[in-house]
Amino acid sequence: DTGVSQDPRHKITKRGQNVTFRCDPISEHNRLYWYRQTLGQGPEFLTYFQNEAQLEKSRLLSDRFSAERPKGSFSTLEIQRTEQGDSAMYLCASSSGQGMSNEQFFGPGTRLTVL
Amino acid sequence: QQPVQSPQAVILREGEDAVINCSSSKALYSVHWYRQKHGEAPVFLMILLKGGEQKGHDKISASFNEKKQQSSLYLTASQLSYSGTYFCGTGENSGGSNYKLTFGKGTLLTVNP
Predict the structure, then answer these.
(1) Any residues with CB less than 8 A from the CB of B73 and at least 6 apart, and which?
(2) Who has greater pLDDT, B49 or B77?
C-alpha cells in the first residue's frame, strides 16, 4: 500500500496524559500536513511541513501541541497534558509539491478520545 | 474564513442528479473536492485551479467561477456509492503559500435505492 498511513488508528487516554501520533506520507511527497476534524465539521488546518521544515502553525495549535518531521519523511504530532476538548480525529495528508496543483491525499486518521 | 457549502444535506434516489455549491468571501486560487464516508478519511475527487478548465471524470464534474469565488460539484446519474459527506477545501494563494486548505462544513449526500 503506497498511501498515507497513520498510527495508532484509535487512542483513548485520560485527561492530563501525553499522546503521540505518527504519520507516514506517500514516499515521494515532500509536503506533509496535519488537520483536526471534529464531528460535523470539515478538517481544520493545524500545521504544515515542507521536507523537515515546519513552515506554519495554526493558532489552533496551542503550546501543548508539537509536531516534528525530523528527516523529512514520517512526522509525529504530540499533545501534552491532554484535555477533553482535544478529542477529535487527527488527519495527516501529504502532497508532492510538484507544480501548482497541490493535491493533498489523506491518511485514515487517528481518533483521539480524552476521558 | 471558512467557505460556505450548500445545501447542507441532500437525499437522492439512485439515478438522480445533484449539485453541491461552495462559496468563499475571499479570492481563491484553487478549490479541492473530497468525499468522506462515515469513519473514513476524506478521499480526493478533483482540484480546480484559477484559470484552469472544468474538471470531470465518470459522472462527477466540477466548475470554478473565479470572479464569483464559487465552485460547484455536479453528480449525475447518482449511484449508491456516491453517498457520503462532500467537502470543498479552498486555497487562497498561489505559489509557495498555496498549501493550506480551508474546508467547508460539508454536504451530506444520501443516495437511496
Answers:
(1) B19, B20, B21, B22, B33, B45, B60, B61, B62, B86, B88
(2) B77
Provide the pLDDT for residue B93.
67
- Which among A56, A104, A108 has CB closest to B32? A104
Cell of A20: 503521540
Q: Is A49 on the interface with B (CB under 8 A)?
A: no
Residue A80's pLDDT band (boundaries 50, 70, 90)? very high
Distance from CA of A31 to the nearest CA of B (A): 9
Mean pLDDT of all residues in chain A? 92
String of DSSP letters for A68-108: E-TTSS-EEEEESS--GGG-EEEEEEEE---TTT---EE--
Owner of C-alpha cell 496551542: A62
Helix (H, G, I), strand (E, B) or coil at A55: strand
Grid cell at residue B25: 468571501
Of A40, A45, A106, the CB nearest to B42: A106
Which residues 69-98 of A have a C-beta within 8 angstroms of B? 91, 95
Interchain CB contact of B93 with A (< 8 Å):
no
Chain segment A21-73, per-residue pLDDT in tens: 999 999 989 999 999 999 989 999 999 999 999 988 888 788 999 999 998 89
